[in-house]
Design a protein that fits this description.
Strand content: 15-25%
Structural class: alpha+beta
Largest sheet: 8 strands, mixed, barrel
Helix content: 40-55%
Length: about 950
């Protein structure tokens, strides 16, 4: 705080002036507080003294009463011990029995801890109290007087006051310190405000106070800064306004000078006050030159004050101006306007000249161009009509007059819709939309196809465009319509469109249109939850009609059939010609399959009625295949294919039939086809292999040959037997391909064994469909020629007995043809069919193979034993070889030898094995048979 006298300091503000009252209040409050504090503490000391007196009396009195009254020595001792035991606060203890001399014990006086003035002020006398009690011996009583020292009590009060004085001193110091700090902050705030005010007064408008310090300081700083900002904004705004006014005045002068139009200003008396640079260049007049100062007038005579107003107000305000320096004259339009003072009185006029020389030339050129355009529009073949913005016709050429029926005099000024009448919509609407579009100059406009109604009522198919006529600023000034007669073109387009979707012969839908209708019909059926029948129709024996009566009659028959189909269908149905004599009929929204069958039956009856063509009466029927959606939930192409498959099946049933496509059967066929495809892939990938099972003579051990057995080396499932292949390719073309592959593989293997010196015969199983093919013998001959090293007599074809009995005569002929090549035959699984002696006699098979089901039971089943015995005897009677299949045990071999069957094959002899293991097995088999023969030869002499 700055150094100064007290009065100066106290006058600095409210806070300094409150300093003295605050100090006085603190003194007054402290005085009152300590007055009551001393009184309270004194009372507390007296209460404490009374408590100590009672405690001492209660403790000593019983002991003193118990002592004999005459034992003064014991009494004095007890009193001394009481002083010692009760502390330094006891001043004296006095015991007296009635009138007996008193016994007294005193403690030394304690030093005073409080100042004397405080002890005198407190004025606490030594507390004392008497205690009386009758003695135990009789009527005498004793009195105990206890006196305390006053110094400890005064010291206790003084210590409490000293502690409170320290606390009060700290509080007072803190209060005074905070008050002093507040006063200094207030002084600092006032000083900052004074400095900021002085700086702002000196012109530094950006002066701002720092917002720091106490809340009052920050509030005052924020207020000052806000006020300073507003004052600064106001001052700067005034300065900016002055600057803008100055610049505006300067800009206005420059703007007038920069105007390309000549401008002059003169006062109300007609004296020229100012001209711009354009006026000076035009007339070489000095700026600010008045008429009294100029040697010649600074404007043409027509612009004198007496005549200029009349020219400006006239409709033709153009004058001819002759510029200085002998430039050619210019046509210029004159305009003037008055200007007033701030009080509203006329101050003068401002006049300007506008050069219209080029505009007049452009108008002349435009007039000539318009004449050329009118001649051009009159000579072209398209109709052209122009309108103004309100839609009234301005021009119409001769072609437009011919197509609308209105002459130019009749059409001009009339509304566009009254002359250019369209069938569907108003032409003015298209013209208005053209005017609203942001048309790019030169861009092609969309062509609209419409029907124009002639004034006479005749109608023309036209195509027209509507384009906006725009001014230089882009605003629409009207519309131009260009149109032409396209009646012939439209008819030709309709014909082309019709032929693109219809069959030219019958007029029915073609394939493309059928695809659209079928897609829509599927959608409707799915939405309504009803059935859709896709019917494929084919005329029975139509080719016969063509061959017998010619194509013209056939075409007439197709047309009549199409007419009957068209009369049969309902709005929910559709019919199309697929080509040739095939039609497709879509029957929609039917509840169930019986309803479909009923409608198809009615249709077949209608189509089966006689056809009267020229002088002939023709009879024909149809075969119908039906695919039902959504039972057959397929796409349109698949539905057509399924209907075609069903139609082919209907033809296979004898024609004039209806067949509904079976979805489940088709899925089974597809699955079978997939499996057949997998077998074909396995064949071409080399996954199919041949295993060979030997056939031996049970008596001699000789290897008579081997049977080739098909196996599938599946890449995932391992080695599979023929039951995984043959059922999949049964009655399929692949069955023949696999059969021929087996023949080629067996012959190739026989050639390798021939090279090794093994002339074994090999048996190959041939399926009945393969064997019944007409070219089987030729194909077999070709396959045999691929291995000329192998004799055909070593190849044996095994045919199932049941297959051989299907067509006895054909089988006999085929077997004899193959035997002519050298090939031999065996009847496989003999005994499982319906063989008879006549059949066995007629079939030229060299070998009979007993089915393994009979061989397995010859040891336990008497019927099997009898049957095998009969077959062996039958074969012997017809001089045929007999082979027993499925031999598994040595006992079965012995029983067969006993029955006279020496040839056998089965797991008991050898399992089927790959070709590369056959030679090894053959050597081991020969060694085993030789060893067994030696053992039997050794046993034979011993038995004899």
């Amino acid at each position: 705080m700055r150094t100064g006298n007290l009065s100066t300091w106290l006058l600095r503000g409210t806070y300094p002036r409150l300093y003295v009252p605050i100090v006085l209040i603190i003194v007054l409050v402290s005085t009152v507080r300590y007055h009551y504090l001393v009184a309270t503490e004194t009372d507390e000391a007296r209460r404490h003294a009374a408590t100590e007196l009672r405690r001492a009396g209660d403790a000593l009195l019983p002991s003193l009463v118990a002592l004999p009254a005459s034992d003064r020595q014991a009494q004095a001792t007890l009193l001394s011990e009481g002083i010692a035991s009760f502390g330094r606060g006891i001043h004296s203890l006095k015991w007296q029995v009635d009138n007996e001399p008193a016994t007294e014990a005193r403690a030394p006086r304690l030093p005073a801890t409080a100042p004397d003035w405080f002890a005198q002020w407190v004025n606490i006398a030594p507390p004392s109290q008497q205690f009386s009690q009758a003695l135990s011996g009789g009527g005498a009583s004793g009195r105990l007087t206890v006196t305390l020292q006053a110094a400890p009590l005064v010291g206790q009060v003084w210590s409490t006051v000293v502690v409170q004085l320290r606390i009060s001193a700290l509080n007072i110091f803190t209060i005074l310190l905070l008050l002093t700090l507040l006063l200094r902050a207030n002084a600092r705030m006032l000083r900052r405000l004074a400095e900021a005010t002085d700086a702002f007064r000196q012109g530094r408008l950006d002066t701002r106070m720092e917002v720091t310090g106490t809340l009052e300081s920050r509030a005052m700083a924020a207020t000052f800064n806000d006020m300073a900002g507003k004052v600064q904004s106001l001052v700067l705004s005034l300065r900016e306004t002055q600057q803008q006014q100055s610049e505006q005045l300067h800009f206005t002068r420059q703007l007038i000078d920069a105007l390309p139009l000549p401008v002059f200003v003169r006062d109300a008396k007609g004296v020229t006050l100012e001209v711009n640079c354009a006026w000076q260049r035009l007339f070489h007049a000095p700026a600010g030159a008045g008429s009294a100062q100029a040697s010649t007038p600074a404007y043409p005579q027509e612009l004198s004050p007496e005549r200029s107003t009349q020219i400006a107000q006239a409709q033709d305000n153009e004058i001819r101006v002759h510029p200085a320096n002998h430039q050619p004259p210019r046509d210029m339009a004159y305009y003037e306007a008055p200007f007033t003072t701030t009080r509203g009185t006329l101050a003068g006029t401002i006049g300007t000249l506008v050069d219209v020389t080029e505009r007049k030339r452009a108008q002349e050129a435009l007039r000539a161009e318009k004449e050329r355009a009118e001649v051009t529009l009159a000579s072209i073949g398209d109709g052209v009509i122009t309108t103004d913005p309100s839609g009234c016709i301005e021009t119409i050429n001769e072609a437009a007059q011919l197509m609308t029926g209105f002459t130019a005099d009749q059409a001009l000024g009339r509304q566009l819709d009254d002359v250019f009448r369209l069938y569907e919509e108003l032409a003015s609407r298209n013209a208005s939309s053209a005017a609203e579009r942001d048309t790019v100059p030169g861009a092609l406009q969309p062509v609209t196809h419409e029907v124009l109604i002639h004034r006479s009522g005749e109608r023309y198919a036209i195509e027209y465009t509507a384009s906006a006529i725009r001014q230089g600023d882009g605003t629409a000034a009207g519309c131009v319509l260009v149109f032409r007669d396209v009646t012939e073109t439209r008819n030709l387009r309709h014909q082309i469109s019709w032929h693109a979707r219809h069959d030219p012969l019958t007029g029915l839908y073609n394939r493309a249109a059928l695809a659209e209708r079928l897609t829509h019909a599927i959608f409707v059926a799915r939405q309504k939850g009803l059935l859709l029948a896709v019917c494929m129709l084919d005329l029975d024996h139509f080719q016969t009609v063509n061959d017998a009566h010619g194509n013209r009659v056939g075409d007439r028959l197709l047309k009549e059939t199409a007419r009957r189909l068209g009369a049969f269908i309902t709005p929910q149905d559709a019919v199309a010609r697929m080509g040739g004599d095939e039609f497709v009929l879509l029957l929609g929204e039917l509840p169930d399959v019986p309803a479909i069958e009923a409608r198809v039956d009615v249709l077949m009856q209608q189509l089966a009625a006689p056809y009267a063509i020229d002088d002939r009466v023709l009879h024909t029927t149809v075969s119908v295949g039906v695919a039902v959606f959504p039972q057959d939930d397929a796409n349109p192409d698949t539905l057509l294919r399924h209907a075609d498959q069903a139609m082919c099946q209907a033809k296979g049933f004898g024609r004039n039939q209806m067949h509904v496509f079976d979805v489940q059967l088709d899925h089974a066929v597809q699955t079978q086809h997939t499996r057949q495809t997998r077998v074909a892939q396995a064949l071409h990938a080399g996954e199919l292999v041949l295993h060979y099972q030997p056939k031996v003579n049970l008596r001699t051990g000789e290897i008579l040959g081997l049977e080739a057995l098909l196996r599938w080396q599946h890449p995932e499932q391992g080695l599979l037997g023929p039951q995984h292949v043959l059922p999949l390719i049964e009655d399929a073309e692949l069955e023949v391909e696999v059969g021929e592959w087996v023949l080629r593989q067996a012959l190739a293997q026989m050639r390798q064994w021939t090279d090794a010196g093994m002339l074994w015969e090999v048996s190959v199983n041939i399926s009945a469909p393969h064997f019944h093919r007409a070219n089987f013998v030729e194909r077999l001959k070709d396959i045999l020629h691929t291995c000329p090293e192998v004799s055909p007599t070593r190849l044996e074809l095994e045919i199932l007995e049941s297959a051989a009995l299907q067509d006895m005569q054909y089988m006999r002929h085929m077997m004899q043809s193959c035997q002519a090549l050298g090939v031999r035959f065996a009847l496989d699984d003999f005994g499982t069919g319906f063989s008879s002696l006549s059949y066995l006699k007629r079939l030229p098979a060299e070998t009979i193979k007993i089915d393994q089901s009979f061989v397995r039971g010859i040891l336990e089943d008497g019927d099997d034993l009898t049957l095998v015995s009969a077959i062996v005897a039958l074969a012997a009677a017809f001089h045929r070889h007999v082979v027993a299949e499925g031999v598994e045990t040595a006992e079965q071999c012995a029983k067969l030898l006993e029955l006279g069957c020496e040839r056998a094959q089965g797991f008991g002899i050898a399992r089927p094995m790959p070709a590369h293991e056959v030679l090894t097995w053959a050597r081991e088999h020969a060694a085993r048979h030789a060893a067994r023969a030696v053992q039997e030869a050794a046993r034979r002499p011993a038995s004899t």
